[in-house]
From TrEMBL:
Pfam families: AAA_5. The lineage of its organism: Archaea, Methanobacteriati, Methanobacteriota, Stenosarchaea group, Halobacteria. GO terms for molecular function: ATP binding; ATP hydrolysis activity. Residues 260-392 form the ATPase dynein-related AAA domain. It comes from Halonotius pteroides. This is AAA family ATPase.
Length: 492
């Protein structure tokens, strides 16, 4: 009960006993003493603590649109007269449909009404529509049934687009043809980075937005205006420059190897995906492990009739096509696989010994690796070989330092289409998350964890319970999330 209402465990137990004594229900108790409520017969009004937590009990079966803040009695009647009989149908209406239904229902009030109406639509209905959209994208036109897709990367030989300045006839230093850092600290004073925009946004591996016809589950979220939600860009703690600006300028230098070090869920891959989306560059993310060998990166030798021929792996094919290759958890690879990349990191050419090939990558090809810091929390992370480490331009991506900045980012992601969690509650959650990042004995709530937490809230979980559930889910064996619950009570 303490997850849902402002009650201690003892207060909740007393309230349950009082209800049984009043004859509202009967209690059965297990051998362990736990009480199970049975035979409920509601009497009188609900206790105030229940009303405060869950709202007034609706006695009639008709939908009352007056729970929406801008809806008056006359507007409520007008909505019924116009044929709206539930929140789902109202949420699907347009501003033009309902504006002017009454003399007081202006366009701005209609916009607020529709936005608030979406919060009352059962989440299951929204999820069903979204799932249907994704399902429809996988329909085979021949069978009219959904099907999986398997892409042989070695056969994807199309190259990324040309630099936009070439297509448009601009000078190479024309700002219109390059990425301009205008987020985070640079929002008020944009900085040109020199990273050229490419002219083919439909190139297959350019990261897609959630509104794209071919969007999948890894699509980039968009805000109310249909724009991609930008990452909350931290300042590199040593260079004191926004990270998107630093990385974009390194990417502008060509095949310069970049290493991004940061804790889980801090947004390392999202930042690279965002830069690739903004510049129409191919994005290939590859996860490696201790079993990864050079042929997993570059491709094996396979029989073709009477001869043995090379088959391109993801890294080699991506370099040929001009993609931005992102290798995650790079240090855990076997030394041989990492050393096989040394010539590429040093000289910009790839020698694939087993293939007998010297590959000069496409001029738009780029290489980025990510890794967790080799600290106690990430004890499975391997420290990188010093000879390999010295070949990279290294940057640190910490968790977002400013609470308001993280709140703004989460607000745009969680509430972009339908309001999920109000901003004051979101701020309390972020404030608590920042405390978990400062206490080594507590499970750490990352920015990614907070997006999952908001998803739980959308599914009907109360905020406090959602925080507890996510804390439990990320806890290490030597951590006890219960230790953080007392502090959580100070926020929620």
């Amino acid at each position: 009960m303490s997850d849902y209402a402002d009650l201690s465990d003892q207060d909740a137990a007393d309230l349950i006993d009082e209800g049984a004594d009043a004859g509202i229900y009967t209690l059965d108790r297990s051998s362990g003493g736990n009480a199970t409520i049975t035979g409920v017969s509601p009497q009188g009004t609900e206790p105030k603590v229940i009303t405060d937590a869950f709202g007034e009990l609706q006695q009639d079966t008709d939908v009352d649109f007056r729970v929406i803040s801008v809806v008056t009695d006359s507007i409520n009647d007008a909505l019924y007269d116009a044929g709206y009989d539930d929140f789902a149908s109202l949420a699907d209406a347009s501003i033009d449909d309902i504006a002017s239904l009454t003399s007081t229902l202006t366009e701005s009030r209609a916009e607020n009404l529709l936005k608030e109406a979406r919060t009352h639509v059962p989440v299951g209905l929204r999820l069903a529509k979204t799932a249907a959209t994704y399902y429809g994208q996988r329909i085979d036109p021949d069978t009219e049934r959904a099907a999986a897709r398997v892409t042989d990367l070695s056969l994807v030989t199309d190259s990324v687009g040309e630099p936009l300045y070439r297509s448009e006839g601009w000078e190479p230093d024309d700002e219109r043809g390059m990425y301009v850092s205008d987020i985070g600290r640079n929002a008020g004073s944009p900085v040109t980075t020199g990273l050229h925009l490419l002219d083919d946004p439909d190139y297959p591996s350019v990261p897609k937005t959630a509104t794209h016809p071919d969007a999948a589950y890894d699509a980039l979220p968009v805000d109310d205006n249909g724009e991609v939600v930008p990452p909350a860009v931290p300042i590199d703690p040593r260079f004191q420059v926004p990270l998107d600006e630093l990385i974009a300028k390194k990417l502008a230098r060509g095949l310069v190897p970049i290493r991004v070090v940061g804790p889980r869920g801090s947004g390392k891959n999202y930042l690279i995906k965002y830069l690739c989306h903004k510049t129409n560059r191919g994005y290939q993310s590859i996860d490696v492990d201790r079993a990864t060998e050079p042929e997993d990166l570059f491709g094996p030798l396979v029989p073709d009739g009477d001869v043995i021929v090379p088959r391109n792996g993801a890294v080699k094919q991506g370099l040929l096509n001009g993609d931005t290759i992102v290798i995650n958890e790079f240090p855990v690879m076997q030394a041989g696989a990492a050393i096989a990349l040394h010539r590429l990191l040093n000289e910009g050419t790839l020698l694939v010994k087993s293939h007998g090939e010297l590959v000069e990558p496409h001029p738009s090809a780029r290489m980025v690796i990510t890794m967790n810091p080799p600290t106690r929390e990430y004890r499975d992370s391997e420290p990188m070989n010093s000879a390999t480490r010295g070949r990279f331009r290294s940057f640190e991506q910490p968790y977002i330092q400013e609470i308001e900045e993280e709140v703004e980012t989460l607000d745009r992601q969680a509430n972009s289409n339908d309001p999920v969690v109000d901003r004051p509650t979101l701020k309390k959650i972020v404030q608590f998350a920042h405390q978990t990042r400062e206490n080594e004995s507590w499970p750490t709530l990352s920015t990614r964890n907070l997006t999952i937490l908001c998803e739980h809230i959308e599914d009907g979980v109360y905020p406090k319970a959602a925080v507890k559930g996510v804390l439990w889910g990320v806890a290490e064996p030597n951590q006890y999330p219960e230790d953080a619950y007392e502090t959580l009570n100070d926020y929620l």
